Amino acid sequence: MGSVNEINPKVDTSVRVFDTFNDFGIDVPANEYDAVLSYLLSVFSDRTAAENFTTAIFRVAAETDQSALTVLQQIQAPDSIQVTLNIAYFLNGLRSPSTLLGINQAVTPNAWAARNILP
Questions:
Q1: Residues 6+ positions from 40 with CB-CB distance below 8 Å
Q2: Tens digits of pLDDT across the chain (119 residues)
Q3: Using CB atoms within 10 A as the burial measure, which of 7, 57, 73, 80 is most buried?
Q4: Torsion angles phi and psi, residue 117, rounded to 5
Q5: 7 occurs within a structural domain
Q6: Residue 57 placed within a domain
């Protein structure tokens, strides 16, 4: 006998993608979620990283009004480093310029402007 809490796969074909850190949530088709997650699992050795990047891809897709599979085609690369760089590129388009991802050096202000800034 089935439980009330079990999901009927014939009725509910969506997956809830959410990110508690950025307070982002969206319902996505289960087949798209599985396709994106399976590709990222083949690229990354860590399941948590693959799941987090899957959420990032769906966030980019929602913000740019594209399909997640279209975004996935644009970020595909042979190794995890290049995939990470591609995802950072898309996420930087959604973020404030002062909080960009993948920037190793802090931006140094002009010496004359830095003198006018109080600590």
A1: 49, 50, 51, 53, 54, 57, 83
A2: 444 455 555 655 566 766 666 677 788 888 999 999 999 999 988 999 899 889 889 988 988 899 999 999 998 888 888 888 888 888 888 877 767 777 666 666 677 766 666 66
A3: 57
A4: -95, 125
A5: no
A6: yes
Q: What is the largest CA-CA distance in the chain?
A: 75
User: How many domains are there within the chain?
Assistant: 1
Which domain range does residue 79 map to? 14-115
Place of tokens 């982002």: 24
Burial class (CB in 10 A: 0-12, 13-18, 19+), 29: middle
pTM for this one? 0.66
* CB contact at 8 A, 64 and 73: no
73 within some domain:
yes
